[in-house]
Amino acid sequence: MTIRELTREKARNWDRMGHASWLRIYAIRLEKNVFVITGGAIKLTRTMQERPHTQEQLDRLNASRQFLVDNGVFDSDSFISLTEEDEL
Description:
The chain is an alpha+beta fold. It contains 2 helices and 2 strands, in the order ββαα.
């Protein structure tokens, strides 16, 4: 068993030709190819803090990460266990 930090990472399509996409999907990576999507926005500024709608997404992303940490979620199995508890 290993302890991992839930990370916020940028996903990029390095093969894309032309300008960068304005659409952003925000997610927390639990493990390889497993993400919890927390929201999305159209990003027209360099940083998320420059606009209220992207700052809101950043706040949501951080709150979601803290919720997962507080509830012992660190991989897909612990996430499934948490969601199954809500169904009981």
